[in-house]
Amino acid sequence: MTTTEPERAQRSWFHDAAAPGAVSLDYCVLSGHPCPAEPEDGFLIRPADRRQLAAYHALRRENFVVEQELFHGSDADDIDDDPRTTVLVALAPDGAVLGGVRLAPATAEDLGWWTGSRLVVNCGRRTRGVGNALVRAACAYAESNNVLRFEATVQARYGAMFTHLGWIHWGDTEIGGVPHARMRWPIDRVERLAQATKSMLGPLLDGLGTGPMTLGGSGFRGDDGAPVPGSDLIAACDAIIPSMVERDPEWAGWCSVLVNLNDLSAMGAEPVGLLDSIAAPTRSLLTRILRGLARASQTWDVPVLGGHTHIGPAALSVTALGRAARPVPGGGGHIGDELRLTVDLGGSWRPGYQGRQWDSSSHRSGAELRALGRFVTATAPAAAKDISMAGIAGTAGMLAEASGVGVELDVTRIPRPANAALADWITCFPGFAMLTADRPGAAISDPGPAASAVCGELASSPGVRLRWPDGTTTTAVPGTVTGLGHS
């Protein structure tokens, strides 16, 4: 296999001297026996320890250096020296190494772009299925370690085997005079999140009708908040999932205020008050929910004007009211507009929600939080949305969809905390975070304690694409996110 990582020589994942007409998938791709036998007790694939790693290197030398003479003296390279490299090995019941494969980040900073290489099988053991299993295990291992792009470059004659395993052919190259195919494992993490959290909205909300002010009316359809007819009021409403209310009631109460004030902020509105609706099976749980909600209300200095509270199954929703002379729509972007992320990187992962919820707000003072909330109002961009449950990538798709366009995100320019993997960061709830779109070079106001950077561009093709350091783009969401269409 050959990797496409910057500043690394091309190399092949699979090296084999088998005849081009060979038909056995394992034998064709690996250097295995032509008539492999079924193992009596199967095999186990796991990350290699020191002894197993030595056996894996010995297998590579035997196959690639001695037998096939693809390398002179040694097939070791810089990937072997990278401490981030992981080797997966297949072990027989007696502990013998039946084969192995290595995985490693393709860039100096791990952005979630990995490559696989040096897959080898012990041909002397004649064990069926090891090669395919190692490829599948490599894919699973990559996805479980926050990889968003996983690739291999293999000899062209092995492309069919990779396609059979679900890989996608995305290009061709030639290495040492031998045709190779560039293969990519389809990782749909962003798309699955968008489907789970937002894709049902269009079909469901169609049942509400098409009145002139339904779902915010023209220009604000499906927006973070809705203009109240005949006034300068903006209304926003969000609910907290019941499992979170039961598991972490104070945090749920705090977040019920946070997400609603973020909605008002994205609309360019100044908050004036809150209405709550709370239910819990016990008085104790009600008290804890209200404690978190009250602390947030006091910190932001936005009063709870009223609401409803009762004993019953856990439920929590809040409506926020604000004022905006000129509301900022979520769908006001145009092709060529710059997409900017303004996000508070302070704080840490919320305990119990590692990789899913970033708590940037609970340590901030009221003055800091109010300053953050005024960013969109002061900047007055063409379009704005706060980051929702669909994460940064999914919300970028929502802004683009509402604007009738698509979006391309540059993964190297997305502001993120040093201890947050890119895949987690663009799919989590990041606390305070705003996406804004405006003409190139448009001025912005002081973001306060937040970081702010242009990280993408609105484009003509629908969906969300990620641009990587080598200039390659991959599709994160192939089409619309909500199905609500142009606002």
From TrEMBL:
Annotated SUPFAM superfamilies: Acyl-CoA N-acyltransferases (Nat) (SSF55729), PurM C-terminal domain-like (SSF56042), PurM N-terminal domain-like (SSF55326)
Domain of life: Bacteria
Transmembrane segments: none
Alphabetized Gene3D superfamilies for the sequence: 3.40.630.30, PurM-like C-terminal domain, PurM-like, N-terminal domain
Signal peptide positions on this chain: none
N-acetyltransferase domain segment(s): 43-188
The protein's name in its UniProt record: AIR synthase
Family matches, as PANTHER family: THIAMINE-MONOPHOSPHATE KINASE (PTHR30270)
InterPro entries, A to Z: Acyl_CoA_acyltransferase (IPR016181), GNAT_dom (IPR000182), MSMEG_0567/sll0787_C (IPR023911), MSMEG_0567_GNAT (IPR024035), PurM-like_C_dom (IPR010918), PurM-like_C_sf (IPR036676), PurM-like_N (IPR016188), PurM-like_N_sf (IPR036921)
GO MF: acyltransferase activity, transferring groups other than amino-acyl groups; thiamine-phosphate kinase activity
Protein source organism: Nocardia aurantiaca
GO BP, sorted A to Z: thiamine biosynthetic process
